[in-house]
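Async update (no meeting this week)

Hi team, since we skipped the sync, here's where things stand on the single-chain job. The sequence we agreed to prioritize is pasted below, unchanged from the tracker. I ran it this morning and attached the output directly underneath so nobody has to dig for it. Comments welcome in thread, and please keep replies under the output.
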Amino acid sequence: MTGPGAREPRTPAGSLERPARLRPGGRVAVVAPSGPVPEERLRAGLDVLRGWDLEPVVAPHVLDVHPALGHLAGADRARARDLTEAWCDPAVSAVICARGGYGAQRMVDLVDWAAVRAAGPKAFVGYSDATALHEAFAVRAGFATLHGPMTAAGTFLSDPRTQESLRATLFEPESVRTLGLETARALVPGRARGVTLGGCASLLAADRGTPHARPSARGGLLLLEDVGEEAYRLDRILTQLLRSGWLDGVAGVGLGSWAECGPYEEVRAVLADRLGGLGVPVVEELGFGHGATALTVPFGIPAVLDADAGTLTLDVPALR
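Output:
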């Protein structure tokens, strides 16, 4: 675990160090920092990665289930050790989460962040519960990451566009500089520039008050989505982010999917009410998160959000 005297980056929303793109034959580690992983879906996802001419390596505890807490993929320390060891293996070019669920918050402080920083940036891919890790990689390591589909996730296995978005980002990042589905439209019109950050709104709210939390989203382009949160609960989550001052000075907001959150007109009313007063551009249905199609969006990259055009355009490719 990181020692008390170790220096840790604490930036609000600055550009982060980009990892290198993947090459054919590259080795990628699959880890399970959160919930238990269905073995059949994991095998199917590994086959997709092999079809991209990658060599997936499954971390030792990926198929574990906690003996008492069945919502966890094994013990916290084991899950943290898997992530640390995969990151510090010089033969590994990328680390991809197997699935979300819950549990990343329990293990994030057990990761050896000093060793992670020393090993340098790599492509990290995940979403949902992995939001806690995206924030940690940004604040505690200074690395850009990829909010993208996970190896055993249903959308990754079933949706070709989701697969292609991740594949192109990993291998040909210059080809996916402009992001956004055809559904994207302005909730609040305008155009804004900033550095991308975000993830699950509920996880970002849960991070407030923890020792290594990002102090604010000031100057950033905040990308938000969530799953299974009814409209009144989304109201509470966004209100917490507002009341804590975390949204003060945010440059713009991009909204993804709100799967299983109830009728979208009710969700949309909450989003407009809570975010409309920020005085910044807001675009909805950009196409990332838990929806039927989940585009890969990078965090820690300078970009322009054009709400009227429904696009997020990166200043530089997500990977070097």
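Quick observations from my side:
Confidence is low (pLDDT under 50) at residues 1-12.
The first helix runs from residue 39 to 51.
Reply here if anything looks off.
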